[in-house]
Amino acid sequence: MKSHVFNCIRLEGKVAFITGGASGIGETAARLFTKHVAKVVIADIQDDLGQSIIDQIGEKGVVSYIHCDVKVEKNVENAEDMAISKYGKLDIMFSNMLEFLRNLIPQS
Fold first, then answer.
1. Prediction pTM value
2. Model pLDDT for residues 6-51, shown as the tens digit of each residue
3. Which of these CATH numbers, 3.40.50.720, 3.30.300.20, 3.30.2420.10, 3.60.10.10, describes 15-104?
4. Would you tell me how many other CB atoms lie within 10 Å of the CB of residue 91?
5. Percent helix, strand and coil across the chain, each rounded to 5?
6. How far is 33 from 50, CA to CA, in rounded Å?
7. Residue 8: which residues within 8 A CB-CB, separation 6 or more?
8. How far is the CA of 58 from the CAs of 37, 54, 71, 98, 101, in angstroms?
9. What pLDDT shows up at residue 102?
10. 65 DSSP 8-state letter
11. Rounded to whole angstroms, how far apart are CA atoms 76 and 61?
12. Order of strands across the sheet with 15-19?
């Protein structure tokens, strides 16, 4: 049986990049990943919400926010580059771009 302590540190040393991380599922993932000792980069277009999450859960250097519109490839490249520059690597890509996907699905 796995111990609770093991479960709480299973992401220790990992760096996660979460698109759409300022609200909803992405926000929940960001909170969970930091609880499991990962460093997190939140990439979103909701700057006020993104900064609010940093203020709530962020210790300096543990969670970061960057403005990123996933519909603009250069935005994503810049955000990924920032994550790698700041943390030295990128282990987890959590692609949570629900609004973008909704726009691709025809509405009836």
1. 0.81
2. 456 678 889 999 999 999 999 999 999 998 889 999 999 999 999 9
3. 3.40.50.720
4. 14
5. 45, 20, 35
6. 15
7. 35, 36, 37
8. 12, 5, 27, 24, 28
9. 57
10. E
11. 20
12. 63-67, 39-44, 15-19, 92-94
Residue 102: count other Cβ atoms within 10 Å of its Cβ. 9
8 Å CB contact between 50 and 63:
no
User: What are the structure tokens assigned to 69, written together?
Assistant: 């519109």
Are 71 and 98 in contact by the 8 Å Cβ rule? The answer is no
**Identity (one letter) of the amino acid at 70?**
V
Residue type, 67: H
Task: Write the CB contacts of 45 (distance below 8 Å, at least 6 apart in sequence).
Answer: 22, 67, 68, 69
Can you read off the two tokens belonging to residue 87?
Answer: 């943390």
User: How many beta carbons lie within 10 A of that of residue 22, not counting itself?
Assistant: 24
Distance separating alpha carbons of residues 82 and 80, to the nearest angstrom:
5
